[in-house]
Amino acid sequence: SQTIHQWPATLVQPVGSPLSLECTVEGTSNPNLYWYRQAAGRGLQLLFYSVGIGQISSEVPQNLSASRPQDRQFILSSKKLLLSDSGFYLCAWRKRLTNTGELFFGEGSRLTVL
Amino acid sequence: AQSVTQLGSHVSVSEGALVLLRCNYSSSVPPYLFWYVQYPNQGLQLLLKYTSAATLVKGINGFEAEFKKSETSFHLTKPSAHMSDAAEYFCAVSINTGGFKTIFGAGTRLFVKA
């Protein structure tokens, strides 16, 4: 069966520090991968998605970036965090060869920027 | 452009009462529609999905939703609420372009009173 792992689960960082959140999918190949951010009362905002290694599409201009160095690894990064980057970050994957668009989510990473 | 509107950020029901969570969508093409549930500090789990088959879709935990094209709605219902249903619920629409993006509504938090 397929599983998705995110880490760290919780992170407290000072303003201006770097960020790296990692997501790994197991049990499937060539997934589509997604990063969402969830802020209180604002639903889920799609940040990045990837259809293959090295292929990243950005949905919202910001000081975050994403990379996909391996087929089942998706990394969210920042060089200098802002207070507004605080939130709950969710990684998700979708089977490439289906047309239902169902997403499978990780457990999330809660980031607090102080 | 595709979008999702969830009416009511908070809904409160008594245990055993009907649950009705409202969702309206906007889509220029036949949509794939989903309901997800999120428990505190966790990722999202799929409740049910509509993919152009039967308009009445049954999901897990006794939930169901009906796709009404004329009303552009996909409301979620459950005949009898249980305390364990207390969570946040998200309606979502999948867009069959690029990375098959999924757009989420702002969410509705369901409270269940004893």
Question: How would you describe this structure to a colleague?
Answer:
The complex is a heterodimer of chains A (114) and B (114). Chain A has 114 residues and is an all-beta fold. Chain A has strands at 3-7, 10-13, 19-26, 32-38, 44-52, 55-58, 64-70, 73-78, 87-94, 104-105, 109-113. In chain A, the strands form two sheets. In chain A, strands 2, 4, 5, 6, 9, 10 and 11 form a seven-stranded mixed beta sheet that branches. In chain A, strand 4 and strand 5 form a beta hairpin. By secondary structure, chain B is an all-beta fold. Chain B has strands at residues 3-7, 10-14, 19-26, 32-38, 44-50, 56-58, 64-68, 73-78, 87-94, 102-104, 108-113. In chain B, strands 2, 4, 5, 9, 10 and 11 form a six-stranded mixed beta sheet that branches. Chain B has a five-stranded antiparallel beta sheet with strand order 1-3-8-7-6, with no helix packed on it. In chain B, strand 9 and strand 10 (102-104) form a beta hairpin. Classes of the chains: A mainly beta (114), B mainly beta (114). The A-B interface holds A 32, 34, 36, 41-44, 46, 49-51, 57, 59, 88, 90, 92, 94, 99-108, 110 and B 9, 32, 34, 36, 41-46, 49, 51, 90, 92, 94-96, 98-107.
Question: What's the topology here?
Answer:
The complex is a heterodimer of chains A (114) and B (114).
Chain A: E1 3-7, E2 10-13, E3 19-26, E4 32-38, E5 44-52, E6 55-58, E7 64-70, E8 73-78, E9 87-94, E10 104-105, E11 109-113
Parallel strand pairs in A: 2-11
Antiparallel strand pairs in A: 1-3, 3-8, 4-5, 4-9, 5-6, 7-8, 9-10, 9-11
Chain B: E1 3-7, E2 10-14, E3 19-26, E4 32-38, E5 44-50, E6 56-58, E7 64-68, E8 73-78, E9 87-94, E10 102-104, E11 108-113
Parallel strand pairs in B: 2-11
Antiparallel strand pairs in B: 1-3, 3-8, 4-5, 4-9, 6-7, 7-8, 9-10, 9-11
Provide a quick synopsis of the model.
The complex is a heterodimer of chains A (114) and B (114). With 114 residues, chain A is mainly β. Chain A is 0% helix and 57% strand.
